[in-house]
Amino acid sequence: DVSQPMATKLASDRAVEAFKAIDNGASEAGKLKSELLDQIETVKISGNIAGGAIDNVKNTINTRYGLSIGKDGNITQAPGRMASVDTKSQNLISEYTGLLRQLGQNPTARQLDDFVDKTQRMLYKQSSPNLFDVADEPVIAFLKQQTGEINSQLKANVDATLKERGIEGSYSDLNQEYADLLEINNSLNKRL
Predict the structure, then answer these.
(1) Do residues 128 and 166 make contact, with C-beta atoms less than 8 angstroms apart?
(2) pLDDT grade, residue 5 (50/70/90)?
(3) How far apart are CA 191 and CA 93, in angstroms?
(4) Could you read off the pLDDT of 7-30 as tens digits, one per residue?
(5) Can you state the angle between helices 137-164 and 7-38, rounded to 10 degrees?
(6) Alpha helix (H) ranges present in 39-136?
(7) Contact status, residue 29 vs residue 138, Cβ threshold 8 Å
(8) Which whole-number Å values give the CA distances from 72 to 76, 98, 146, in the listed order?
């Protein structure tokens, strides 16, 4: 019957509905996460997370990729080594460490959360199969791992502060829900 919608049209409509529901869920989780951070806006995260991350990135890119990061943030070939990654990867590492440097020694929870959100978007965009000029996968994987470590430290600090102040809610749970929904969203984007 030609008056009935075709199966592909129905499937397409349902996929769009699912995509919108996931996007709305991610927005809501992000909003709730932000509301929790608003309650501890001025709390500085101790432990020099950014400095430790920069040191780890410096050591790893030297060991794995033959690169060195100068005090000015410029990436060069490490003395006596041959760089084993392309320019796009070097630029990604430079952008990542530049964002870490902007955090300073004792960023607030909000600043660290912004860093994690920004770098996750930046790194997942690099993984898009539609891009031709992307960084090397091992570099992307390393920076994702580094971001995950920073995020773990952030979650532990924020949850401890919330508990200490008697504030209900779990930043870790909201953060995980947000990340899961964004991952599903990215996966759907790649497939649609």
Answers:
(1) no
(2) low
(3) 28
(4) 777 777 887 788 788 888 888 887
(5) 50
(6) 49-65, 87-103, 109-126
(7) no
(8) 11, 10, 21
